[in-house]
Design goal:
The chain is α+β, with helices and mostly antiparallel strands. The chain has helices at residues 18-30, 44-52, 102-116, 139-146, 192-204, 217-221, 224-234, 284-299, 315-324; strands spanning 9-12, 58-67, 70-80, 85-93, 121-128, 150-151, 157-163, 181-186, 238-246, 252-260, 267-275, 305-311, 327-338. It folds into 2 domains: 5-157 and 333-338, 3-Layer(aba) Sandwich (Aminopeptidase); 181-303, Gcn5-related N-acetyltransferase (GNAT) (Aminopeptidase).
């Protein structure tokens, strides 16, 4: 039997509706093993927190699809402020209900939901195999193409994993800190003195100059990093940072970030590593990552698997990750489809 959207009952994913949230959580957990090493195992605290706390400058719109009282699918859109796109963060069908048209019905519903929010384009990532890498099912790409989606132009993504039981990049020690710099550690909440710098470095990828940055208590309170921390804390995540401070100027020359969920003691997500343009060429990127790995392991000794992702045209960072022992697992390819106006 093939189901259409009209056969399904779509219920908004709302933290104030425990029954629907619990059904969504079970559905997400049941689908977690679809692609090995595509993500850490699901963490209930992280998932339920994600319903309440959206990333900065975005709105989340999620729904759970029910058929005869059973949750059979789910979708979630990320709606960036001031953009015409709706990012498909989740579109999944219960494993036992696949190949019955539910995925197609979810895709049509995603388009309708995007249209209700004034969006004109659906975009989303599809996992594909890398040459010589682990096998990845071609079904998701074929599904997207069958529904009229096309591959987006621009860089793709590379998803990498580091298994510390196979290779420990810090076994040879941490490089010396270059003359004129010092390292600074912090945890989940960024010190006020670094909040603006972390926000600007992260958002500009190290290209903006300190003289263009805001300052003062209000700028700190409303900074991007403060809003991001609200989401991170709301999801129960712990974070670890190391920054490099230029001693003469007092500027934050760069930083790296890693975080983890409460439910996965073995897994760590390596987040952004960025060095300001004027401070590159001193080996700070590798130093920051290795110093932060040591930082993490002091407090999270059970960590064994680290994941990260980069645009495939970010050759320096991919090369640095390879040198640390990260192994590419898959390609992340962006697809897009126009939102068909209702009528």
């Amino acid at each position: 039997m093939n189901y259409a959207a009209a056969d399904l009952r779509f219920v908004p994913l709302d933290a104030g509706d425990p029954a629907t949230s619990d059904a969504w959580l079970r559905l997400t957990t049941d689908s977690a093993e679809d692609v090995p090493l595509s993500a850490a195992p699901p963490c209930a605290a992280d998932l339920t927190g994600s319903v309440r706390f959206a990333p900065p400058d975005t709105v989340l719109a999620g729904e759970v699809a029910f058929l005869d009282g059973q949750a059979v699918g789910a979708l979630r859109l990320v709606l960036p402020d001031g953009a015409p796109v709706a990012v498909v963060d989740q579109l999944l069908t219960a494993p036992k209900e696949r190949r019955q048209g539910i995925g197609t019905a979810l895709f049509r519903r995603a388009g309708a939901l995007a249209g209700q929010h004034g969006r004109t384009l659906l975009v989303g990532d599809v996992v594909e195999a890398l040459p010589g890498g682990p096998v990845r099912h071609e079904g998701p790409a074929a599904f997207a193409a069958s529904l009229g989606a096309t591959r987006s132009e621009g860089p793709e993504g590379v998803h990498q994993w580091l298994d510390l039981d196979r290779h420990d990049p810090s076994s040879g020690g941490i490089p010396e800190v270059p003359a004129g710099y010092r390292l600074q550690r912090w945890g989940t909440v960024t010190p006020d003195g670094f909040a603006i710098a972390v926000s600007e470095l992260g958002q500009s990828l190290g290209e903006s100059l300190p003289e263009t940055w805001g300052e003062g208590p209000e700028a700190v309170r409303t900074s991007h990093v403060r809003r991001y921390e609200r989401m991170r804390v709301g999801r129960g995540r712990r974070a670890y940072h190391v920054g490099a401070v230029h001693e003469e100027s007092g500027e934050l020359a760069g930083f790296t970030s890693a975080s983890k969920t409460t439910g996965n003691p073995r897994h760590l997500l390596q987040g952004m590593t960025v060095v300001a343009r004027g401070h590159r060429g001193h080996g700070l990127g590798l130093l920051l990552k290795l110093a932060n790995l040591a930082h993490v392991r002091e407090y999270e000794p059970r960590v064994r698997l680290i994941e990260t992702a980069n645009a495939d045209d970010n050759h320096p960072m991919i090369a640095l990750n390879r040198a640390m022992g990260f192994v590419p697992q898959e390609r992340l390819v962006s697809w897009e489809a126009p939102v068909v106006p209702a009528g």
